[in-house]
Amino acid sequence: MSELRELYQELILDHGKNPRNFGAVEDADYRADGHNPLCGDRITVYVKAHEGIVDEIRFDGAGCAISTASASMMTQALKGKTVDECKAIFETFHQLLTAEREPEEVAETLGKLQVFSGVREFPIRVKCATLAWHTFRAALDREGEAVTTE
Ligand code: ZN
Fold first, then answer.
1. Domains, the chain
2. For residue 50, how far is its CA from the centre of ligand 1 (angstroms)?
3. Which of 8, 107, 108, 117 is the most exposed place for a label (fewest CB within 10 A)?
C-alpha cells in the first residue's frame, strides 16, 4: 500500500468518526444545504466571514465517512483563509479529484487534502468527497440556496 493510500484511510477514519468544526452556527453570514442523492449524504455548511476572510466555518448533517471526513478537513483547511484563497483551494481540490492534476502537483496548495486523490477511481465517492465543497461554494455564491451533486 502506498503512503498516500495509508494516510487516506487513516484520515477518513479519524475525521469520519470525530469530525472537526461540527455543529451549527446560529448567526452565520452564509449557509447552504447540500445533498448527494447517490449516497444519501446531507450537509449544511455555515460560514462567518469578515472583510473577505473566513473567520468561522462549520458544518453539520449526516453522511458517509468520506463526505464527513472531507467536510471536516475542508473546515480546517479554509478557516482563516481569504474567500479568494478558499475558492482557489476548492478549484485545485476539484482538479485533483477529477484527475486533471496529480497529487504531487497540488501538495503545496492542498496539504493533507491531497489524500482524497484516493477516491478518483470511484465516481460515486468523488461526489461524496466534493459535496461539502460544492455546498461551501453555494453558501458564498447563492446565499441559502440548496445544492445537490446531481
Ligand atoms: Zn457518501
1. 3-141 (3.90.1010.10)
2. 31
3. 108
Give residue 106 CA to ligand 1 midpoint distance, Å.
Answer: 24
76 and 19 Cβ atoms separated by less than 8 Å: no
The CA-atom distances, in angstroms, between 129 and each of 9, 25, 55, 99 are: 13, 22, 23, 14
- Ligand 1 centroid distance, CA of 40 (Å): 6
For 109-126, write each residue's pLDDT tens digit. 999 999 999 898 888 899
Percent over 90 (pLDDT), the chain? 81
Q: How confident is the model at residue 105 (pLDDT cuts 50, 70, 90)?
A: very high
> pLDDT for 34-57, tens place per residue?
999 999 999 999 999 999 999 999
Report residue 45: phi and psi, to 5°. Answer: -110, 135
Tell me which residues have their CB within 5 A of the ion that is ligand 1. 39, 41, 64, 67, 128
Query: Measured in angstroms, how far is the CA atom of residue 84 from the centroid of ligand 1?
Result: 27
Cell 462567518 -> residue: 48
pTM tops 0.85: yes
